[in-house]
Amino acid sequence: xxxxxxQSFRRTAIGAASSRPCTLVVCRGCCCGNPRKYPxxxxxxxxxxxxxxxxxxxxxxxxxxxxxxxxxxxxxxIVVQPSGAGRRAGGRxxxxxxxxxxDCTEDVLRWAAAxxxxxxxxxVTLELQFIRxxxxxxxxxxxxx
Length: 145
Known about the structure:
Layout: H1 6-18, E1 22-27, H2 43-56, E2 61-66, E3 78-81, H3 84-88, E4 94-96, H4 102-114, H5 124-127, E5 130-131, H6 134-142
Parallel strand pairs: 1-2
Antiparallel strand pairs: 1-3, 3-4, 4-5
């Protein structure tokens, strides 16, 4: 980074985020993806299906996994993060709970392929599974005291 100033580095870092694709963050922590806790769901198939959809999308969206996202009582949890363009259009990360069946997986794939938050409207059936992020739920609880 010879000759780079902090100012030019910030522009580069922000510029790189502007081209970021929609990202599916799939929880695979203590409860989500756990076949002992949820034996009726093929968790491996779901993750394979999401990754195959991302591969087939031509870069429109990507999939990554993470450890526990927090709302274990609403497993499986997937967070759909907007692309750079989606964020500029007002899209924000959308949390989806109870994402265990094939229909939900396909709805998530269709929405991400269409652009995700800020770009495309989510399927109505998927909206029924939107949940509050843990920090938002905690802050709402604190204000009720």
